[in-house]
Structures are given as C-alpha cells and as structure tokens.
Amino acid sequence: MSAHYLTISTDSVEPESGAPAPDRLISGDPKFRTWNVEERDGRLYAGIWESTPGKWRIVYDEWEFCHILSGVSIIAEEGGEARTVRGGDSFVLRPGFKGSWEVLETTRKEYVIKL
User: Entry's Gene3D superfamilies (predicted)?
Assistant: First the structure.
C-alpha cells in the first residue's frame, strides 16, 4: 500500500448512513450512504456518496467536485437553472450555491470537498 496513492472504492471503508435534515426535506424519504475514504486536516474530503430517491434543499458553504457514477438527479439553483445529471457527468458546486437536489433514480457520485 502506497502512502501517496489512494484508490477511491467502497471496499476500503464502512459507509456512514444519513438523510437530509428534516427542515431541508422537500419530498420522499431519501437515505444516504457515504464512504469517506480520505480526510485531511478537517478541510479536505474525498469518497463516494449515494442517495435513494427524494428531494431536499441544499446550501453549499464548501467547494465540491462531483463525478456521477450512476443514477439520475436534478440539481436546481435557487432563482436559476435546473440541471439533470447522470452517470458520466462531472461538475463543481461552489460556495454560495443554494437550491435543491432531487434524486430521480438512486444516484452514486465520487466527490472531493474542500472547506
């Protein structure tokens, strides 16, 4: 095992379970699983996240790179455009992004978060 190379995989860590905060839930009963495989100084995180269908409000204070591995979601910016994302799509959500995330088909993404 290299100290400088890390494979992003669900095999490397037990998932954490979660859900949107009740005050952010818009519809459905989404459930999250997160495999956080890298954490540095409490300011950088990388791993895999998955959600079952549902819709909730999102507010980003952090910077996040996302690469959708599977599923279909709609990310709608408050007062702006709604974007459908699916397997193969990559994007960045910047600090200050507000809107909603709606999972139409269970969605799994790789992420890198910088606080």
Answer: Jelly Rolls (2.60.120.10)
Residue 1, pLDDT > 80, answer: no
Domain 24-114, CATH 2.60.120.10 — does that match? yes
Res. 52: pLDDT tops 90: yes
Residue 94 has pLDDT above 80, yes or no: yes
**Hey, what are 60's tokens?**
């980003």
End-to-end Cα spacing for the chain: 28
Cα separation, 87 vs 57, in Å, equals: 22
C-alpha separations of 106 from 1, 13, 57, 101 in Å: 32, 20, 17, 12
Domain boundaries, the chain: 24-114
d(CA 70, CA 94): 22
Cβ neighbours of residue 53 closer than 8 Å, sequence gap 6 or more: 28, 30, 103, 104, 105, 106
Pairing state between β 98-114 and 44-51: antiparallel
